[in-house]
Amino acid sequence: MNLAVWLENAALAHPERPALFEGKSCVATYAQFWERARSFAAWLAARGIERGDRVAIFMGNCPDYLVALYGIWAMGGAAVPINATLHGREAVYILENSGARLALCDAPRAAALSAAEAPCDVVTDLHETCEHAAVAGAAECAPGDLAWLFYTSGTTGRPKGVMITHGMIEAMTTSYFASVDDVYATDAALYAAPMSHGAGLYNVMHVLKGARHVCPASGGFDPAEIFDLAAHFGAVHMFAAPTMVKRMTDAAKVSGQRGRGIRTIVYGGGPMYVADLAAARATFGDVFVQIYGQGECPMAITALSRADITDDAHPDWALRAASVGRAQADTEVAITDAAGQRLPAGEIGEIMVRSDAVMPGYWQNAEATAATLREGWLLTGDMGWLDAAGYLTLQDRSKDVIITGGSNVYPREVEEVLLQHPLIEEVSVVGRPHPDWGEEVVACCVGTASPGDLDALCRAHIARFKAPKAYVFVQELPKNNYGKVLKTKLREVVLS
């Protein structure tokens, strides 16, 4: 089924219900939302865009983003959302690789593409396109048809295009309702994280339930603006990277805010350290749910429920809070060794996933597809372990494991300890070459704690071979556009 049918159904059932907001201003009801999407679909067809063609969206968060997305789907095309913070040359690579026929941009991104010599037509005025006579309804699509071509963050090389189908997003939505959270018509989805990523994917369950969609007037992430909008709308849902949650917590402490109006914050995309989660709960209350996913299985691998995060009286709460929860309803999770053999509970290995939400492959990249998909299973490249109750704890990407003196050190374990120090704000642990041990452990820290105090903390909590042999203090940790720490950059720092 074409995902655009969900918008059509919502518009038929609740035509006058407010749908799209820019800041506090409603700019479209559900009937108007669907009308604009259908008009945009007709405009695309008039320009020669055909079923299966790719259309890129390179703009900041705004209501037109959703109009464009559903318009592309309505005519049977595939959207190529591009992170709005990318450089023009990076965006041009995605346009070239995807074979996009058209790029929808706001003015700043259009200028960036022009300077980088975009290989396709660039359109900046979506309002003009929505004045075209509308198509009657959504084109028919099969579950395997391409809906969203998602480009990975490319921390170790050129980004790959993950093929996300209509069926995958349907499976993700089913798992969301079963394993993550409910959605109600009175909810407001607040898009403060990039709509080209998880925040944008989460629009579909809110469209399905006829909820409101709120784009901050700033077009991005501003804690003060988020607090103001949440208080205004109430029942706010938002997706946030852990770094965003930490910034919101810090801002709330300074301003005295308590996050009034926030109903749910789903966090994911990186590790949420237990100390940061505890601070966020103390500030905002029990509004948190965690998900673990990858572009290759978007938002749909595991979930740590609100109940699990709330139940701090449970004897295993600290371990569960450090986990990413249990497999979502549509997903199987297994831990395997280097030979692909399953490992028992408690043993660390590569995380493998089987689900209807797993991609069919990478766009025009058979070699990468073959290396990542094996007999129906997705090899995530992440290392972790399952406990007897099925809770999955991530350790690190397989490439980030440090081998020192023949023993494995998982950076997150060391990072969790170092973050217990009140004068450490952020930390990331990497390995660097050592002539005798192969690698040694180095901690890159943001904060003012002394190395001696950090050594003492490590001696009290972890084995000596895991403790950092050096501390590098930096003003900030390098991150990509999705807030993930770039360990490749940190390795360059510790080697310099």
Describe this structure in words.
- 34% of the residues lie in helices and 27% in strands.
- It is of the alpha/beta class.
- The chain folds into two domains: 390 residues, Rossmann fold (3-Layer(aba) Sandwich), CATH 3.40.50; 95 residues, 2-Layer Sandwich (GMP Synthetase, Chain A, domain 3), CATH 3.30.300.30.
- It has a nine-stranded mixed sheet. Strands 16, 17, 18, 19 and 20 form a five-stranded antiparallel sheet that branches. Strands 4-3-5-6 form a four-stranded parallel sheet, sandwiched between helices.
- The termini are far apart.
- The mean pLDDT is 92.
Topology:
Blueprint: H1 4-13, E1 18-22, E2 25-29, H2 30-46, E3 54-58, H3 63-74, E4 78-81, H4 88-98, E5 102-105, H5 107-115, E6 121-123, H6 126-129, E7 146-151, E8 161-165, H7 166-180, E9 188-190, H8 198-201, H9 203-208, E10 212-215, H10 223-233, E11 236-240, H11 242-255, E12 262-267, H12 274-284, E13 288-294, E14 297-304, H13 306-310, H14 317-321, E15 326-327, E16 331-336, E17 349-355, H15 366-372, E18 373-374, E19 377-386, E20 392-397, E21 402-404, E22 407-409, H16 411-418, E23 424-434, E24 438-447, H17 451-461, E25 470-473, H18 487-495
Parallel strand pairs: 1-10, 3-4, 3-5, 5-6, 9-10, 9-11, 11-12, 12-13, 24-25
Antiparallel strand pairs: 1-2, 7-8, 13-14, 14-15, 16-17, 17-19, 18-19, 19-20, 21-22, 23-24
Helix pairs in contact: 1-2, 2-3, 4-5, 11-12
